[in-house]
Amino acid sequence: MGRTAVTGSIVIATLSAALTPAADAAVHFGLRDSCGYQSWGVYRHCDGGTGSTVMLDVQDIWGNIYHYCVGPGVTDLQPVIRWRVTGAWWNGGVGCAPGYYGPE
Predict the structure, then answer these.
(1) Where does the secretion signal sit in this chain (predicted)?
(2) Cβ atoms within 10 A of the Cβ of 91, count?
(3) Model confidence pLDDT, tens digit, residues 51-71
(4) Which residues lie closer than 8 Å to 49 by C-beta, 6 or more apart?
(5) Domain coordinates of the chain in residue numbers?
(6) pLDDT in tens, 14-35
(7) 99: closest CA among 48, 60, 65, 79?
């Protein structure tokens, strides 16, 4: 019984150690660090250190489009849009003042 418990512990420890780097990589390179629309009304603008701002088209659950300018980092778009945000994408605009610009 003692040998089985030790062997099982070694196997579990080895598997845990083997899975940890992959799990860390998934967190580091996963959705948390991706650029663009994240979900639940959150958008991450990756500017490469330039400090640029970009204009987004933001879509709600009914298909309405709104304009929202974001700076580098993560922005929660949901608080200023009445209905559930379902997507957001860069519309080509740059150099705007961050904030909500209203419906299209």
Answers:
(1) 1-25
(2) 14
(3) 999 999 999 999 999 999 999
(4) none
(5) 1-33, 35-104
(6) 334 443 443 333 333 444 579 9
(7) 79
